[in-house]
User: Fold Cytochrome b-c1 complex subunit 8 from Phycomyces blakesleeanus.
Amino acid sequence: MGGHGYIGTWGNMGGPTQRGVVTYILSPFEQKPFAGAAYNAVFNTSRRVASQIPYVGTAFALGYYIYTSMNAKHAYLTSKAGHAEHGDH
Assistant:
């Protein structure tokens, strides 16, 4: 059962020689290192921004609501009616 012999070095396992495999190499000077970089940057950035809209939008809406309601309350408290209701300073 455990009598496995030596089968060869890595990549040379003793099988038949592989034939019909063609390898093409492109020189590094012929490649376009930034091919598609602008396209990927625009769409990847827009996808990431869109995924954050629920979180940022919720915080912005809550902040806007607090800001406008407190401005309205401040305007009321500094008005003649607000002074009359809560006493003059």
Q: What stands out?
A: DSSP finds two helices and no strands in the chain. Residues 54-89 form one domain.
